[in-house]
Amino acid sequence: MLEKIPLEAFRVFDAACRFMNFSRAGRELNITQAAVSRRIQGLEDQLGAKLFTRRGRNLALTPDGERLAQRVRATLEYLEESLEPFRGGGGEIISIAASGSVSHLWLGKRLKDFDNGSPSVSVRLLTTDSPSELASEANDLVILYATGEHPRWNLTPLMKEVLVPVASPDYLARHGIEAAKLNADDIAGLDLIDYERFNAHWISFRQWFSRATRPPKTRPNPRRSFSTYSLAIDAALRGEGVALGSIGLISEQLANGSLVELGTDRIETGFGYYLGMPRYRAVPPGAARLHQHLLTGA
């Protein structure tokens, strides 16, 4: 049975890999060069593998050493990051959860603006499409796809969900399409880009067409379908076809002209995106400031 290897041995190995010098590694760790050498030798003995080649004062990693070095560095970096919430004096840490589409299309830029104005606050973003993870009370703030009520969160509206087909100007130009003149039949015949409905309340092209003022005579058949909504929007931005745009999430792309609305049908689903604060506990001051920042910038 392999004897457990102490974590300290891997820290010594990591320092030796970074400096490629046992004396310098020892100075960083406040131990002697001889102690570094003994611990590397002990690690090699326990693993049954040579980790360094030694030619005079020069060190080089063996293939086994290279593989171990990559794994040890990744593990130590993960451990350091995991310990951050437990360290005092490092500023305030707050958490916010949002879906992939909200994080990618709407929230990212606003968090960057908040970071620039609040350097003492660290924001951890949980990106997930799982309703239970989004609504977890472990989060300080959440952005939920909802109708406005939740038993554990006080919700404030950010944006209604209003859906309209969109495409890039390049796609429209290549196909000689005048966007404003299209009806549902015309749009159904284009290169539709859809996405998988992770939530039963989400609307994809089939449901959108059924709610159009004049539904198409033929059943629309999307040519491509992506696993996430944001990937579908990215494909539309690249000129690959027509995606179903949520106006609030793609307001920047509509404003700068990188996406264009097709036709005149806008479908309101009755759902929207809401910013939530915990109903039964107070949030840290930084979370309250972020809450206000997101509402002001919405």
Describe the structure.
- This protein has 298 residues and is of the alpha/beta class.
- The protein folds into two domains: 7-86, Winged helix-like DNA-binding domain superfamily/Winged helix DNA-binding domain (Arc Repressor Mutant, subunit A, Orthogonal Bundle), CATH 1.10.10; 98-298, D-Maltodextrin-Binding Protein, domain 2.
- It contains twelve helices and eleven strands.
- The chain has helices spanning 7-19, 22-29, 33-47, 63-83, 100-117, 131-134, 169-174, 184-188, 205-211, 229-237, 251-256, 285-297, and strands at 52-55, 58-61, 92-98, 121-127, 141-146, 153-167, 192-195, 224-226, 242-246, 260-261, 267-278.
- The strands form two sheets. Strands 3, 4, 5, 6, 7, 8, 9, 10 and 11 form a nine-stranded mixed β-sheet that branches. Strands 1-2 form a two-stranded antiparallel sheet.
- α1 crosses α4 (63-83) and α5 (100-117) crosses α12 (285-297).
- The radius of gyration is 27 Å and the shape is elongated.
- The N and C termini lie far apart (59 Å).
- The mean pLDDT is 89.
